[in-house]
Fold:
Amino acid sequence: MAKRIEAENVTAYYGGFKAIENISLTVEPKTVTALIGPSGCGKSTFLRSINRMHEVLPGARVEGSLTIDDQDIYQRDVDVTAVRRMIGMVFQRPNPFPTMSIFDNVVAGLRLNGVRKKSILEEAAERALRSANLWDEVKDRLGKPGAGLSGGQQQRLCIARTIAVEPQVVLMDEPCSALDPISTLAIEDLMFQLKDKFTIIIVTHNMQQAARVSDRTAFFSIEKTGDPGRLIEYDNTQKIFSNPSVKKTEDYITGRFG
Amino acid sequence: MSATVTTHRQQPPAQPVTLRAKRLPRYVPPALALAAVVVAAAIVYGAGIGGPVLVVVVGALLYLGGLFAAANAVEGRRSARDRTWSALIHSAFVLAVLPLASVVWTLLSKGAERLDGNFFLTSMNNIGARDPEGGAYHAIVGTLQQVGIATLITVPLGILCAIYVVEYGRGKFAFAIRFFVDVMTGIPSIVAGLFVLAFWVLIVSPVFNDGRPGFSGFAAALALSVLMLPTVVRSTEEMLRLVPAPLREGAYALGVPKWKTILRVVLPTALPGIVTGVMLAIARAAGETAPVLLVAGGGAAINFNPFENNQSSLALFVYQQAGDASRYAPARAWTAALTLVALVLILTIAAKLLARRNRLGR
Structure:
């Protein structure tokens, strides 16, 4: 079900600007991998290149190879929408669709991909909302607008929306940075549960969060502004936070840099 | 430069001892206003230089001066400026609303005379200069058909054009489209009418009409759509640009194709604004006289077929009746003008309600 992701020499550009260079790493299925590093080091760029969201921006492109269970997603004949259905994404700020109700938001991915049958949609919505720990809070107001929920609920709604299409991998781009500690805790708990079914990659600026939720941690950094981001160290989270092998990682984690 | 900054840091502004300040008593501004009007009336009528309008103008100026002086004396300079500016802004608002209120009042008072069933159920066919009857049925039919057809042509075309420019257009072609849409905004309606006259009525319509050029309501609709198109494109474009990028990305990340994202996420989000733009365009088109006169020709009889023979429209009816020698014509013109305004108002309200129903209730 969950898939292994292998990145090999991934380099991404914004027009003429090289944002990341030669990133190579392997993410095992059913694990949580945290991407950490200072602002502008290319964590989000790398994350977005995993489900081909990077190229949505004008002038952006990716080189190198990214394989999901031995399928290179950057081959010419790959269907981008199929890749994105397989690899879901949760964004930094909750972005529920403002014209849709809570129910419509959760099943948006299914409905917009052609699922019409009401019983299937209802079942999928309940399953996704339960997985996102939101069911009890919204079950009585599924017809109300998604934008009327609190920030933390909206983010869990977006997670529910993402897992409703049953992806294999869930990418999270700083999913808790706009949330209070209690909502953050709810989403971290959720990640533990989701790990049973999905491969999760999360970008975070919060080192405690990375240490709490992830099995493996990748540390990205840049030499100076304008340089491309590089992967400095990638190891078990415990190793990274207790005994990193690179000095730069240690400096960043202990707060002496970045 | 740096020296002032340093002194600033060294000497913070003196902290006020108390947070309370003297305020003008509540009754002062209205009392001042009353006094200003009385003084103004005394000056104007005493000197015999004008009527009530001048009294209001002089009174307003006196009030502004008096308010500033009083507030300056009691509350200080900052507060005096604040009061004077808010009074100025309120006067500007009244000044802006006055013409509108005047138009509505004039239409209602003068249009009421012929506001009867006969007006809405008969045309001007066989109505002579001495007949007090006659109505705008044919003109209402013409306006509804012409504006309706023009809207049917313009809305899909305009929205698709805006979607291309915002979502797909890159480089010179999209730039050229935006530029020419801007240019089209400035086309005078008579030029749009001439274009359709030269192109449709004189060249194309003979093909369907045994070789004879023919006026038609459809030709008028074409001219109106030329006028509506830039308004629809520009307003839709602005509304689409206002839809936040994260919404699009959210849909893409679910594996939704781009066209479906635009259709099901972007357009519904922008819908209320798009409807407003379309209604502005419709209101403009409904009020156009020249193109209808040029390519539909007007006419006194009811013509339900927009593709053949002359048609009138409300705006054209107003123009013709206002210039008519019959003593009964001006009343018809006023009522037709009232009908036109009411029609546009009803359409606008209906469209807004429809657009709101699509959004979810809070």
User: Anything to note?
Assistant: Residues 77-111 of chain B form the longest helix (35 residues). The two ends of chain B are 53 Å apart (CA to CA).
